[in-house]
Every structure is written in structure tokens, then in C-alpha cells.
Write a structure and sequence with these properties.
By secondary structure, the protein is α/β, with parallel strands linked by helices. The protein folds into three domains: 197 residues, Rossmann fold; 83 residues, Orthogonal Bundle (N-(1-d-carboxylethyl)-l-norvaline Dehydrogenase, domain 2); 137 residues, Rossmann fold, CATH 3.40.50.720. Strands 3-2-1-4-5-6 form a six-stranded parallel β-sheet, sandwiched between helices. Strand 5, helix 6 and strand 6 form a beta-alpha-beta unit. The longest helix has 32 residues. The radius of gyration is 23 Å and the shape is globular.
Amino acid sequence: MQLTMIGTGYVGLVSGVCFSDFGHDVTCVDKLSEKIAALHKGEVPIYEPGLEDMMAKNVANGRLQFTLDLNDAVGSADAVFIAVGTPTRRGDGHADLTYVYDAAREIARALKDYTVIVTKSTVPVGTNREVERVIRAENPDADFDVCSNPEFLREGAAIEDFMRPDRVVVGLESEQAKDVMAKIYRPLALREAPIVYTDLESAEMIKYAANAFLATKITFINEIANLCEKVGADIQSVAKGMGMDNRIGGKFLHAGPGYGGSCFPKDTKALARIGQEHASPIKIIETVITINDERKRQMIDKIMHLCGDKMKGKKIAILGVTFKPNTDDMRDSPSLTIVPALVGAGADVYVVDPQGRKEGEEMLPTVTWIEDPYVAATNADAIVVLTEWNEFRALDLKRIADEMKTPKMADLRNIYDPREAKEAGLDYVSIGR
């Protein structure tokens, strides 16, 4: 199949590379000349394990190319995927669909033969029908169908998620479009991956409902962790006992400083807004959003309390600032609330993160970046674990404590055993334990 991917951000690039690895001929299109130039050199603009090697292999095999020329790429395609950003719109919390509709208009002008237009961006219910209307208005004679094909990629495990998905969701209305989508996803069908064919509105809703549910699960366990601290229970034992129930499952039951990233914050806000607009408010999600915002402030209080509520002039070492490990993504990371608050209280903050510096230098301009956690801990008044990178899971806690001015640790990801931390000489606090 001849496929065109509009947008080379996280979703577009990962999807394009993986489709080419299926054996399809994929052209990725972007407006930014510097991004396309970098891709031509084999440079990947995001950090995702395994992506650079897979991209290089498929470029070398002639199945993957990058271009600024949308017209030529669309005109020769069997299917065109829209994978542009849908950031939260200022003022009302809704998804900003400007880039989606701009892409639809450009695609419309370039269409030649029958083409399936596939929306991979996360979009509110009704967007795909509006995409169809926009294309019809721009090119009344165009022969096309619109499909909704939301992505379910976890940053840090995106290739595995694409190649071995829990399910593929495809919203469509015609048998011709279904035939095209079936051919595109045939490699997964051969592996017996579930492919859910449904209508446009249901496909759009599945994406939002799934992300909102996972955000709710994270928020729920964080609330339970707060209660565990009050009553003397251990949140890890509680989560383990809960997760053994197959109806609940153990994933996303890890207490921490709140969710962040490119999806959960914006998708929960968008879903809440959709509910309000249709006079069917989703009060659970509205509450989840509020609690998650409060969660970050609770973590600030925990750190400051550990330091005697006096931060002025104190050196604080932060381990991890990306919203999760195995990514360089800083979007809505808890660190973007917690670290500036510590700096604002007068602390000198030193940050260690294997991949966060590229984006973090601009987002956290008042911190000092260090490569080695032991160097960051030297003469520190406290050390804070914010992201559970593997590099931080097996530190020599005795050495950390010896390097510090005052051996205090706030482990906001519960990666260490409290007894071992205390035996190493650390004044140690964690979440829900």
C-alpha cells in the first residue's frame, strides 16, 4: 500500500516508521524544513527506544521517505493519515483542531483517485464528520472516505504497542474504506491482533474514554495512598491486592506525583469539555482533573516538610523531570509544577535526567543540570525521585547519604524499600507508605 503520513511528531513518525516496517511504502510529510532535513540525515527528533534503528532500516530498504511536498505525497496515496497536534485550546480546555482542518484542506486540493483519509490525531466526537465536510467544501469532486483510527501508543514502548497492540480501532462507514484499512493492517490481523471496526463517533469516543479511565485509575490510587499514610497501610500492598482481581488489573495502580504527558492532561480536559457542551457533564473526570492538579501541590508540601519547611539556600537534587521514563517528553510533567515551586521558595535545584535536558533547559531555566546522581547529591540538603528511570533504581543509598549535607530523600515513585533507605542513613519519605 502507498501511505502518506501528515505530521512527523510522536504519533506520525512512530506510525509511519512502523507501517513501513509492515512492508508498505510510506511518505511522511511535514511543513518544517529543518525537521525534514534532520530526518533525511537519519536524526530522530524524539527519544523512543528502537525508533532510530527501525527508521534507518526502512529508509535503506526504500520503503520510507520524508518530504515537504504534500501534493505529490497525497496524490499517489491509497490512504492519507492525519497525525498533527491537537493541543489544549486556551480558555476553554477543548482540543484545538486548527492543524487538523488545515491538513484536511490541503489534502482536499491534492486528491486525485479514490483515497481513504484517516484521522490518527486524538479528536473530539464529531471531528471526522467535520473533516469530511471540509474536504467536500474544498474539493466537491473528490472521491474519498474518512476513517477514524486513534492511536494507543505509550511513550517509551510505542513500537511494541504498535506491533503487538491490545486492539486496533477503526471507525468508518463504507466497505471500500474497510477493505483499504484491512489491507493496511493485514500484518496485525495475521498475528490475530483484535481489530475493532465501528462507526466514526464510537471510534473517537473510545480513545477519550480509554485515556480518561486510565487517568482516573492513577488518580484513584493516589487518593488511596493519601489515606494509607493516615491509617498506616502500605499502598504497594493495597495496590497488589487490588490488581490481582482480574476485573481491576494491576496496571496504572502505582501511586506517585500525578499523571502528565502529551495525552492524559489534554484528553481529560477535552472529554470534560465535550460533556459540558452536550449537557452531559462527566463529573468523575472533572474531579480527576482537579485532584491531579492538587496532587502536584501535595508533593511540594511533602518535600518542603522533609526539609523543615525552609528551602532558602538549600541544595535540592532532583532525579528525573520527564513525565515518565524512556521518553524525553516534558509536557505537563509534574516536575514543571514541583521544581519551579522549590526554586521560588529559595532552593538551589540540581537536576539529573537521562533524556530530559533537551526540552528541560528551556522549560526549567533556573536549575543546574548534572549528569551523575552522585555528583548531584554532593552536599545536597535533600534528594527527590520524580521519574523512575532505571538508572535511578539501584543507586548506592549509603554512598548517596554519605555525599549529602543532610541525608534526606523524598521518593515520589516508591522505587526504594523504606527499611533499606533508613539503614543507609537516609531520612526517607515516600508515597502511601
